[in-house]
Specification:
heterodimer; A: alpha/beta; Aspartate Aminotransferase, domain 1; 7-stranded mixed sheet; B: Arc Repressor Mutant, subunit A; Alpha-Beta Plaits; 2 domains; 4-stranded antiparallel sheet
Chain lengths: 387, 164
């Protein structure tokens, strides 16, 4: 059968996380700090809005770009949070998760051979989505010394005449890094000089601690050349509802709607109704969840320091990305041994790109009780491997 | 201490009074001494009125009966309700006491070992208070939730073990 399959798809490696998941899943009583989603249930009033939609028979397709009412709600939410104005008529598309929005944006923009600059360590989907859209992935390897922020020199060095798109992903999965306004401003001359389009994946935008999230779309001259990717999964604990959205220039959005319409028709209708409630009545939920993540972030960061595990202090998302090089194990070996010997699941850093080697991703979207127990186990583990 | 931090501290203790001062200090990003001082101050000011453990006694024994008693009293002026509340408060059987708006005046939660014990208490003690005009007693059948906590064990984490 193999000869019948698409060479392009065959050439893609499946995610390293996938393989690790299969192993972790077979071991009972694992404390999992490997999960890339909130540990909260979707707030009840949002679930109730979903139930109500179902009960009142909202079981039909919506318009391709998403319910008009939801697009309007997204528009005013975005205005409220960032000050940016997007027209619900033609600048917003509701997608099946943020992931679909990334895929659509890339497919709408790329011609064969166009180069896309993206950041590593980063979310696992960028590379394959670029490949599937016939683009050429050009990773920039971020460093711990720079707190995993992108420097203009690094960007300049990655640009070629074929560069078309830059994918920014802050707050970042897996590092928890953020880019502040000054950091983003420093990139503008390079972006403008080379006329790059920016896909700004801001799915963790509501989850920053001690700093306010800044969208690059709000900086001078950037609104027209930026596509914002956002969604409900992380900020509203709605991963299973599969709902995201993209905001941007209407000509780009129009092409994205075209692909979306042929591929999936529209995002799930019931989820869309629940999402209206989230946009309009969810600010308090976000606040409460952020406060809780921040408490656990402080706790885990303190504990990692106590264990002597070097880690830069993350200011966003719900991940820590400690450096494990002193143990002379690869990320994969470290994670596997930790899983087998102490039953704690973390994700090997190289799953997020080559330069993630030497790190592991720890999610603190877990109960305080589990975090405490995991820290004890990690402590035992580290003591064994420290010489 | 900033009001925001103080409220966070109170929420943390309200949800889990077993947190140590050390843990609270880490999670709020302040010093342990500051936490100690603040808690001592809040206890003194009676903002923190006690530390309790939520127990589902029905899982321990069968002699745990609770009733909600509505009390209608003669209209009170001045500090009348306050005085009356103190009188009702004094009974150890009374675990919760609220002054209410609406069709009755006081809502009294009473605990006892048997229905009979509670009935005797209501008729013998509460109803015989001079200002009490009438009582209506409702016995609880099942407790599902108290102080925001469900008595049903929380279901296990349904998330997959590892996801991107």
């Amino acid at each position: 059968m193999r000869e019948k399959l698409s060479q392009k798809v065959l050439n893609l490696k499946s995610s390293g996380i996938r393989a690790f998941f299969d192993m972790a899943n077979e071991i009972p009583d694992v404390i999992s700090l490997g999960v890339g989603e909130p540990d909260f249930d979707t707030p009840w009033h949002i679930r109730e809005a979903g139930i109500q939609a179902l009960q009142s028979g909202k079981t039909f397709y919506t318009s391709n770009a998403g319910l008009q009412e939801l697009r309007a709600a997204i528009s005013s939410y975005t205005k409220r949070k960032t000050g940016l104005t997007y027209n619900p008529e033609n600048q917003i598309i509701v997608t099946v998760g943020g992931s679909e929005a990334i895929d659509l944006a890339l497919r709408a923009l790329l011609n064969a051979g166009d180069e896309v600059i993206y950041l590593e360590p980063g979310f696992v989907s960028y590379y394959p989505c670029i490949k599937l859209a016939d683009g050429v992935p050009v990773p920039i390897r971020l460093t711990e010394e720079n707190r995993f922020r992108l420097k203009p020199e690094q960007l300049e060095a990655a640009v070629t005449p074929k560069s078309k798109v830059l994918i920014l992903s802050y707050p970042n999965n897996p590092t928890g890094a953020v880019m502040e306004k000054e950091d983003l401003e420093a990139l503008l001359p390079v972006i403008q000089k080379h006329d790059l389009i920016v896909i700004s994946d801001e799915i963790y935008g509501e989850l920053t601690y001690g700093v306010k999230h800044c969208s690059i779309a709000g900086l001078p001259g950037m609104e027209q050349r930026t596509i914002i990717i956002n969604g409900f999964s992380k900020s509203f604990a709605m991963t299973g509802w599969r709902l995201g959205y993209a905001l941007g220039n209407h000509e780009i959005i129009e092409q994205m709607v075209k692909i979306h319409q042929f591929a999936v028709m529209c995002a799930p209708t019931i989820s869309q109704y629940a999402a209206i409630e989230a946009m309009e009545q969810g600010d308090g939920d976000i606040e409460a969840m952020r406060e809780s993540y921040d408490q656990r972030r402080k706790f885990l960061y303190h504990e990692l320091q106590r264990l002597g595990l070097p880690c830069f202090e993350p200011q966003g998302a719900f991940y820590m990305f400690p450096n494990i090089r002193e143990f002379g194990l690869s990320s994969g070996e470290f994670a596997l041994k930790l899983l087998k010997e102490e039953k704690v699941a973390v994700v090997p850093g190289d799953s997020f790109g080559e330069c993630g080697e030497g790190f592991v991703r720890i999610s603190y979207a877990a109960s305080l009780q589990n975090l405490k127990e995991a820290v004890n186990r990690i402590f035992r583990f580290l003591s064994r491997y420290r010489t | 201490m900033e009001q925001v931090i103080r409220e966070q501290l109170l929420h943390m203790l309200e949800n889990n009074s077993k947190l140590t001062e050390h843990e609270i200090a880490i999670m709020l990003g302040i010093s342990e001494e500051e936490v100690q001082r603040e808690i001592a101050g809040l206890e003194k000011a009676h903002v923190i009125c006690g530390y309790h453990t939520l127990i589902d006694w029905n899982k321990v024994n069968d002699d745990d009966v609770t009733a909600l008693v509505e009390l209608r009293v003669t209209p009170q002026g001045g500090e009348g309700y306050q005085k009356l509340a103190e009188k009702i408060n004094a009974y150890p059987q009374v675990v919760t006491l609220y002054l209410m708006s609406g069709a009755y005046d006081f809502l009294v939660m009473v605990k006892g070992k048997t229905l009979k014990e509670i009935s005797l208490f209501v008729s013998g003690k509460l109803a015989s208070i001079e200002e009490v005009q009438s009582t209506t007693t409702h016995f609880t059948l099942t407790k599902y939730k108290e102080l925001g906590v469900s008595f049903e064990a929380k279901q296990a984490d349904e998330r997959m073990v590892v996801t991107p």
